[in-house]
Amino acid sequence: MKAASSLPGAAIAVLFLLSAPAMGQSLAPPSLDEEMWRFSITPYLFLPVTTTGTSTVAGQDVDLDLNLVDVVKVLNGAVSGRVEAWRGDIGLAVEGSFVALGDDASIGLSGSGSGHVDVDVRIRQAYVDLLGGYRVLNRTYGESDRRYAIEAFAGARYNSLTQDIAVNGNAHLGPGLDFQRNLGGTEGWWEPVIGVRGLVQLSARWTGAVLADFGGFGVNGDDLQWKVRAGVDYRPWAQTSIRFGWQFYGIDYATNRSDGTFAYDVFQTGPYLALTYQFQ
Over the range 118-129, which residues count as b (16 or more CB within 10 Å of their CB) and which as e? Predict the structure, then answer.
């Protein structure tokens, strides 16, 4: 059984496994007409090999210093994806993610009797991004006319974060010594998001990409939520690409609830993997 001190932190840290926004590439393959509406669907996975920071529930801080194995152990299920629609230099994007996780532990009490304390952690995290995009640069280079482009995004993100910890104690010394307490709860908030994406074709099948976005800016308790991602896109089939690379991610959210401060201040880094299908 896990130590009680690491249980809430490990569960909360995995919230952003599978939940970081996808790279989502707008350059169309040769089989699609860029002057017509074209669409892409991208399921994706982010694997944080390092998670550091602080989670706060009911005013109590839990320091986080976790690896990928720690966080995967508490994952119950997740789904994440991004859909983009582009026509010429104008684009729209909708992205969503839902993560469900949890864990529990039982801690024996020392002294007389055979009492114990049960701790049950249940976490839910979801978000939806609504974004508009514009390609501000679209040029070619070299004798093969390989393309490179820069795209800007802006929009809004809705976040929902649950950090729910149930504590049940039984001292086996009489009913008056038993106790039960629920800590934390659910918070939801809107925040603005801006971002930029750079793309450069390296060959007929390979494309390099860099993405950075920033959200929150102090709105509704989220001081800053940011991400920087760099990787490559390999297109083994006419309209399907495999994307992989490395990501850096951070969030600094805090609010006050009736039972105390509710906060999440975390930095994560690790590889990402995505699959994109484009069509029109």
Answer: ebbbbbbbbbeb
